[in-house]
Amino acid sequence: MSSVQLLPATATPSISTAKATPFKNLQSCSTMAELKQHHANIIKLGLSSDNDAMGRVIKFCALSESGDLNYALKDSFCQNNLIHMYVNFESLEEAKRVFDSLDKKDDVSWTTLISGYSRWGSVDKAFVVFESMPVKNSAAWNAVIAAHVQNNRFREAFNLFERMRNENVAMDNFVAASMLSACTGLGALEQGEWIYDYVRSSAIEVDPKLATTIMDMYCKCGRLDKAFEVFNGLSSKGVSSWNCMIGGFAMHGKGKAAIELLKKMETETMVTPDYVTFVNVLGACAHSGLVEEGRYYFSYMTEVYGIAPGMEHYGCLVDLLGRAGMLEEAREVINEMPFRPDVGVLGAFLGACRIHGNIDMAEEIGRQVIELEPNNSGRYVLLANLYAKAGRWEDVANIRKLMNDRGVKKVAGFSMIELEGTVSEFIAGGRTHPQATEIYAKLEEMLVRIKDLGYVPNPDGILYDICEEETENPLHYHSEKLAIAFGLLKTKPGETIRITKNLRVCKDCHQASKLISTVYDREIIVRDRNRFHHFKGGVCSCNDYW
């Protein structure tokens, strides 16, 4: 029965009169002998992979009293669709069984299985299948590179990309999009610009998806100006292009610019804002403290466009109100939601309670969040920090014990910086870098200079925040400070330093970065887990609102 659902058997293709007769004959078959004869004619006409033709073959074989389903499943086109069906249902063993049974495996067979393993997180199995291919074409390279990118294995994706280039396989728009996403993940602006330059100098078509990927790379690598330049240069802008640019302004804390772009979208184009548009607009309001604007657009999207608020919209509204200290109103929003709040909504409220030190409101929701995501160490940490701030050390110990009992491991904090096409990664207190001696010497110089401006280490939110930087290391040796020191060593005076973190910037590093930007007259751009921070002249673009 599942086989019948693989292809639509009712669609009528646009075909010439010469081809119409064999299709009609397929539909009028009454025996398997007739079907085989007319199917042979279809194959001779080069239509063996036509959806409508094969849909009729499968339908007859599966539903007719004289039908033979095994006959249909011997066709490679049907078998490829069967692999695809099993992949969709996460039946990877069955998909592999069908794949192994194929007498002749075509490009579709290989790439479908590789992509299937990737989709469900089995990247290593996808790689094994790829390596067993006798001939690797561009589709196969794209499938395996995409597999690694989609599962955040960016460095391995770069290694595969280098192999592909060494084997003289030309980069197409699919590989370009995957590699730009890898650059985005690593914050590798130089590599991303190299790929974009290659795209522009070659015959690669910049379709809407690739254009959006280029913009996203620039936004997330700290070059909002370049992203806007690409956006303005597009001859045609679909809703995804507008959403990407509005989202870029949001993550950089430029809420008013995001709203202005929405207004331009509404008044100067025929493009209609959608669900994602308003997630990004509300996120922009949340990151910029635009409370009244956020309230307005939350209602506006329903009143004007008929878009019912979804989980993400509620999460943004709760985040907006909570960060602004309106905890009672934020809790009221949660209580009045038409559906059960997810961990994102509750987590936003819990984070707001942490910012404002409200242990009473946080405690009950904190427990709920932990049970909703029992393997997420950050959820335990938020609640533990609140207990620590309130001096409830027994509760802190209980949270730690709960983590240990459940085998929940803390997430290691790291910071990355790209220089001369190479991405260097730092962990708190790490000394494995070849230039560690020089880096630590520069760090000590940094600390002396910012202390002259009044810097005092701030352990608030750090001592118990085991999800952020390692607490065993002094505040001075957090990964972000090491990355900044390396950047100062390797870049020219006045050059912007760009850093990517996997966790939220701590209060101490935030304050230190502001002072470093003043002492060295540098702009320091940091992308953390939640947003961008542009440190320049002793201030941060987030206005200490993060």
From TrEMBL:
Residues 454-546 form the DYW domain. The keyword Repeat applies. GO terms for biological process: RNA modification. InterPro entries: DYW_dom, E2_motif, E_motif, PPR_At4g14850-like_plant, PPR_rpt, TPR-like_helical_dom_sf. SUPFAM superfamilies: TPR-like. The keyword Amino-acid biosynthesis does not apply. PPR repeats lie at residues 106-136, 137-171, 207-241. Keywords: Repeat. One of its GO terms (molecular function) is RNA binding. Belongs to the PPR family. PCMP-H subfamily. This is Pentatricopeptide repeat-containing protein, chloroplastic. It comes from Sesamum angustifolium.
